[in-house]
């Protein structure tokens, strides 16, 4: 199902409203002493799970990556840089979409760069 611009805008506004309502007053997110990242929110917070669900609606069409159009061959330094700095924040499918690579290719590259141990632990 393809979302219209209006539907996408409504989803974005709902994400902003939820973040303003719940995340600004979150004791975990507001505590600078705790090493906070989005993985904690996605796994332990109902609002984080809701925000992730809403975000997936926005990228649902984009996730259906046409593998025939995906890049093949040697990885560039820019792609490696993006992967190194975002592997802990996003799953393989999202990274694949952003890099225009297949999820399998992204996963293999993460193994090559020894990122899986750092990300999964």
Question: Can you tell me about this structure?
Answer:
By secondary structure, the chain is mainly alpha-helical. The chain folds into 2 domains: 64 residues, no CATH class; 57 residues. Helices cover 67% and strands 0% of the residues. The longest helix is centred in the first third of the chain and has 19 residues. The protein is flat, with a radius of gyration of 16 Å. The chain starts with a helix and ends with a helix.
Give the SSE map.
Elements: H1 5-23, H2 27-30, H3 38-44, H4 46-63, H5 77-86, H6 92-99, H7 103-112, H8 116-120
Helix pairs in contact: 1-4, 3-4, 6-7
Order of SSEs, N→C? HHHHHHHH
Number of continuous helical runs: 8
Poorly predicted sequence stretches spanning 5 or more consecutive residues = none
Rg measurement, Å = 16 Å
Quick rundown:
With 121 residues, this protein is mainly alpha-helical. It has helices at residues 5-23, 27-30, 38-44, 46-63, 77-86, 92-99, 103-112, 116-120.
């Amino acid at each position: 199902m393809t979302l219209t611009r209006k539907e996408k805008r409504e989803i974005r506004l709902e994400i902003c409203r939820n973040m303003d309502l719940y995340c600004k007053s979150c004791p975990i997110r507001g505590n600078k002493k705790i090493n906070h990242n989005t993985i904690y929110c996605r796994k332990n917070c109902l609002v984080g799970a809701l925000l992730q669900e809403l975000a997936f609606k926005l990228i649902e069409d984009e996730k259906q990556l046409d593998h025939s159009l995906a890049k093949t061959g040697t990885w560039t330094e820019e792609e490696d840089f993006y992967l190194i700095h975002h592997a802990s924040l996003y799953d393989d499918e999202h990274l694949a979409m952003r890099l225009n690579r297949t999820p399998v290719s992204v996963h293999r590259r993460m193994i090559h760069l020894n990122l899986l141990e750092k990300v999964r632990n």
